[in-house]
Amino acid sequence: MRRLWGLSLLALVIALLSLGSAAAQGGDELLVNGNFAQGTAGWTFNIASTCGSCWIDVLGDDSGPERNMLMWERTNSGNNGSAIWAQQRVDADVSRYGSLWLTVQLRVLQHSLSNSGWWSDMHNGNGEYPVQVTLRFADRGGQLFEWSHGFLAVHDGSTALRNYTLVPAGEWTTYSADLFLPAEWTDPRGMALPTAARLVEVVIGGSGWDFSGAIKSISIMGSPSQGGGSGGTGGQTGGTGGQTGGTVGFIVEEYPLVSAAEDQPDHYEFRQRVTEQILAVRRAWREPPDLMAAVAEVNEIIGQWGYSLRPFDEIEPGGPKYRLMHLGNPLITDITYVWPIAVNSDRTDFRLLLDSWSEPTLVVTPDTVGYVDDRTFVYIPPVYVGNDLYEVVADWNAQQFHVTRNGQIIYTVTPTGPFVEPPVKALWAWEWHWVLEVAGDVLIDGQSLRQQLGYEEIFEWRLIDGLPFFFFKRDGRYGLHYGGQIVEPYRYDDIVHYLCCEPGMFNAAGNDTMVWFYALRDGVWHYVEAGVYR
Question: Which phi and psi (to 5°) does residue 431 adopt?
């Protein structure tokens, strides 16, 4: 049965990938001649009067004689700003769309202005970028407003605007985003835009001092809301940078932070690159609203035996958060962390681990409060599969780690070499299976998921909205896997995981709603959040 399950899952992954790729082609294309195959048809070119040594034209693309690209350049600027652009009148109704996908193949060749420009900071502008895409909308009342995004090879951090993506100089890069997602539907300062009724015009080009850039193709595709209802902005059916492979409701939001040549996520100060505006978007799902809400489910379970967790009215950073009460009397008064609770299917037994300010890790059962066995404890909480208790225990003398069911060993992990941290990472219960994550692999009832799916590595397995999620590595690149399928089109050159000490604060993490992680792509570090938000 286990072998059949693995083969069925692999077949399901392949089938859903095919469906997802086909579905990504749907929707209404709102631009004409977006690949410039018809030269300048549909586009009007403009050069600002202050732009002396400037040009813009459709040229043969260096990827093949059958391809064209729009290219522009400015030289001899004398460090004075100006602009070059092409525009296309669209005048399309977008109020019926739940998603509005912008996809651009672009190349930043060079730019002498190493930021978004002081002028935009001072005058509420859209920024000065060597490659920039601006969409002009009208709201229901006819009031015009703009969404704008720029692309830079370097940014010195001296200006305030956030509407840019860092890309490698001289290389073709594909940018794709659902503009109607809340994280994307913002002005250059991160403020929410009005609801769009019509897309009036599209403007592409560059601005700044000396600069040059090119666009090989641009597409704007509107897709109706899931279920056929009216969409409008905030349809929230895809993810920033590309749709999931057909899994409705899984949203990926990427935030470019800094070039890898400039900084790395290996020191505390790197966290400051993730701004408060970014963290605020999903704070309600990433962090519990208050301490009482965080233990509501635990209290519901342990309350049958007279226990309860009660938060302190005032919490000091790093200090105790809860008291463990029994029949109204305090048992433990300095609890700093509440581990995930394990409860059996009959709701007649549970295990709850608690960290205390003054005591070793505690284990609470229906009739006792005691200490975990620190001789075998590997900082992984137990789980119940049905009415069977599963635990991970260590045999430090033999350098082995065992999975036990009701105290009996059923599986053993033997490291192949020296290790700083134990290779066992997490234990889960999923449906009627036990799931163990070991370094680089996930074992479901003892069977390797990595081998079944043909991946080089699997890590950070968890349940999100009741469905399995994990990261994988294949052909040297990392991706996301959710609900039995690959989340397209996201690929990364690195995802921070399994690090210890100070760099460990950047390891991928999550809860039962979402994951958040730091990922490297095309020489740029991103902060990424992905989840299902109810």
Answer: 50, -120
Strand partners, 174: 105
Please, which residues have CB within 8 angstroms of residue 77's CB and are 6 or more apart in sequence? 53, 112, 208, 209, 210
**Cβ 325 vs Cβ 307: under 8 Å:** yes
Antiparallel, parallel or unpaired: β 457-464 and 173-178: unpaired
- CB-based contacts of 504: which residues, under 8 Å, 6+ apart? none
In this structure, are strands 144-152 and 164-166 parallel, antiparallel, or unpaired? Answer: parallel
- Check whether the bond before 130 is cis (ω within 30° of 0): no
Where do we find the tokens 């309860």?
308
pLDDT in tens, 517-528: 999 999 999 999
Q: What is the DSSP code (8-state) at residue 287?
A: S
pTM of the entire structure? 0.58
Give which of 211, 244, 238, 208 is closest to 226, Cα–Cα.
238
45, exposed or middle or buried, with CB in 10 Å at 0-12, 13-18, 19+?
A: middle
Tens digit of each residue's pLDDT (9 = 90 or more) over 167-220: 889 999 999 888 988 778 888 887 889 999 999 999 999 999 999 999 999 999
Share the mean pLDDT of the chain.
Answer: 87
Q: What are phi and psi of 347, to 5 degrees?
A: 60, 40
Q: What angle do CA 142, 145, 151 make, to 5 degrees?
A: 155
Q: Which residues contact 85 (CB under 8 A, 6 or more apart)?
A: 45, 46, 56, 203, 204, 205, 206, 207
E strand or H helix at 266: none
Q: Is the pLDDT of residue 14 over 50?
A: no
CB neighbour list of residue 418: distance below 8 Å, 6 or more residues apart: none
